[in-house]
Specification:
By secondary structure, this protein is an alpha/beta fold. It has two domains: 134 residues, no CATH class; 178 residues, Trna Endonuclease, Chain: A, domain 1 (3-Layer(aba) Sandwich). It contains twelve helices and six strands. It has a four-stranded mixed sheet with strand order 2-3-4-5. The protein has a two-stranded parallel sheet with strand order 1-6. A hairpin with a 2-residue loop joins β2 and β3. α2 packs antiparallel against α5, α6 packs across α11 and α7 crosses α12.
């Protein structure tokens, strides 16, 4: 790492205006910087006009797709940019300062390989700031008491899907439901990335003689696990989103007829809240709050990514 260049770059970053919505510089500025640094690897031109599209308000090549491609190279796959920075009119001004900062570092005198390594380090720094952004952004869910509990869970999963976190949220919701339903039993709580095979566990959760598998995309591998569970003497539940329920049940019956209990996440979690609340309106509201609190507790115990936490709606507190 070129420490001189890196220090200058961090000073530029620190000078950027902090936005309340992001808790740091505008997302459009970070995205534009990632794209411009990518351009510079191909052609080291520090003239702002070389990076501006016609009209001057937009950086050439800046789009959600181009930013996602760069982030993915650094193993960051969560959605970051929706509008490609088009609403961030301050972006070109920030990029002009970035290019001026780089010009002072005389990177043009370096061999292309060494220069690109330095530019890559600068991108890595920005990707870490993207991760900081995600870790600050809790899921903001709107609870509407007039709707059914099933619908409340369904909408929470839709929000998680929009944020690219549906699989993780689904697993922690089911874990929270089981923990509330069986307070006398320790419901295992492992990070989402922990594979069943690593620990030899029968599924995502194990209660009594039953293995529970939670997935938002029921592919052949999960049915293989279910079949293996049955051969080992376990009862099996496969918990999937409502949209995948019919297909998952058909596939389960085709593989092992009448031996795999397939349930929708919405019904599996919502019915538990209703039962524990004695199907009483005010108690259901309290039950939903307890579910979210239990969910947050489980996430906080094992996940570094705090963006998985759900902001408890004010009308539940």
């Amino acid at each position: 790492m070129n420490t001189k260049v890196f220090s200058a770059f961090k000073r530029w970053y620190s000078s950027l205006e902090t936005h309340k919505a992001s808790g740091g510089p505008a997302r459009g500025t970070i995205a534009a910087s990632l794209v411009v640094l990518e351009h510079l690897k191909e052609a080291y031109d520090l003239d702002l006009d070389a990076h501006r599209a016609k009209g001057g308000a937009q950086i050439i090549g800046l789009s959600p797709g181009s930013v996602a491609k760069i982030l993915e190279r650094f193993d960051e796959t969560r959605p970051f940019l929706k509008e490609g920075g088009r609403t961030n009119r301050g972006g070109p001004g920030d990029i002009k300062k970035l290019l001026a900062t780089l010009k002072d570092q005389n990177l043009d005198k370096l061999q292309a390989e060494e220069r690109n390594a330095a530019l890559n380090d600068l991108q890595a720094f920005l990707v870490e700031r993207v991760r900081d952004f995600h870790n600050r952004q809790r899921l903001r869910y709107v609870y509407e008491p007039a709707k059914t509990t099933w619908q409340a869970i369904h909408e929470l999963l839709l929000l998680a899907q929009e944020k690219g976190k549906e699989g993780m949220v689904a697993q922690y919701l089911v874990g929270a439901k089981l923990a509330l339903r069986f307070p006398e039993i320790e419901i295992q709580n492992l990070s989402y990335s922990t594979a069943d095979a690593q620990l030899g566990r029968p599924g995502d959760f194990h209660v009594g003689t039953t293995a529970f598998h939670v997935t938002v995309a029921p592919m052949p591998a999960v049915f293989d696990k279910c079949k293996a569970n049955i051969e080992q003497g376990f009862r099996v539940y496969l918990i999937v989103p409502d949209r995948a329920f019919i297909g998952a049940r058909q596939n389960a019956n085709a593989i092992v007829a009448d031996r795999i209990a397939v349930e929708s996440i919405e019904s599996f979690v919502a019915n538990n809240i209703e039962e524990l609340s004695l199907f009483t309106g005010d108690k259901v509201k309290d039950g939903f709050r307890r579910l979210l609190e239990q969910y947050n507790c489980r996430v906080d115990q094992v996940e570094n990514d705090k963006s998985l936490l759900i902001e408890i709606p004010k009308n539940l507190t």
